UniProtKB/TrEMBL annotation:
Source organism (scientific name): Anaeramoeba ignava
InterPro entries the UniProt entry points to: Emp24-like, GOLD_dom
Lineage: Eukaryota, Metamonada, Anaeramoebidae, Anaeramoeba
Subcellular compartments: Membrane
Keywords: Membrane, Signal, Transmembrane, Transmembrane helix
Cellular component per GO, a single term: membrane
Descriptive protein name: Transmembrane emp24 domain-containing protein
Residues spanning the membrane: 171-193
Length: 203
């Protein structure tokens, strides 16, 4: 059985709790519109209950991250393609349980995406940045993120405008074709009635 949870992301940080059963897959879908970093943590309430794998799929359904028999840990990946990324939990019942037994465990998933997933403390240590330089880097990244979002929104607006114009053109031609058909049917009906009455007079 496969269950997909579609999360509409408004904030850049998510905390999700859900129950997962044996021989089940549950997926969280994240929509990426540009290159973004995604990082987070996961934790099973009772990891001995189920053998659980954590798998991340890209928009082409290719596996870009897999962690087997998880208990508690961290993960990170870069969404390099636009589209839907699935973070899935796959479960199998341990052999000590009967194959028909339904075993349930609680999953806690916390993840961040975009700028919220960037560890600026680590960057500051690696690049030997001072406190002011670290804050400037945050501001620079924020401005770049806003700029990329504006470009994406402009592209979406242009695409929607093209779609509206194409739809309006098709509706206009459909209306013209409908009118021509109605006019043709009207003319044909007039000709038919005229011929019909002329034959009546001749009789």
């Amino acid at each position: 059985m496969k269950i997909i949870l579609i999360i509409l992301l408004i904030l850049s940080t998510q905390a999700i709790f859900f129950d997962i059963k044996s021989s089940e897959e549950q997926c969280i879908i994240e929509q990426a519109d540009s290159i973004i970093l995604v990082s987070g943590t996961y934790k099973l309430k009772d990891p001995m209950q189920l053998n659980t794998d954590f798998i991340v799929y890209d928009p082409h359904q290719r596996i870009i991250l897999r962690k087997q028999r998880i208990k508690e840990g961290t993960f990170a990946f870069t969404a390099e393609l636009p589209g839907e990324y699935k973070m899935c939990f796959n479960t199998l019942t341990p052999q000590r349980y009967h194959s028909q037994s339904i075993v349930t465990d609680r999953v806690e998933l916390n993840y961040k995406f975009g700028l919220a997933a960037v560890d600026y403390e680590e960057i500051a240590k690696r690049e030997h940045l001072g406190p002011l330089e670290k804050e400037l880097r945050k501001v620079e990244d924020s401005v770049e993120d806003m700029y990329q979002n504006m470009i994406y929104l402009r592209g979406r607006e242009e695409s929607m405008r093209d779609t509206n114009e194409s739809t309006n053109a098709r509706v206009m031609w459909f209306n013209i074709l409908s009118m021509l058909i109605l006019i043709g049917l009207g003319v044909a009906q007039v000709i038919y009635l005229k011929n019909y009455f002329e034959k009546k007079k001749m009789i």
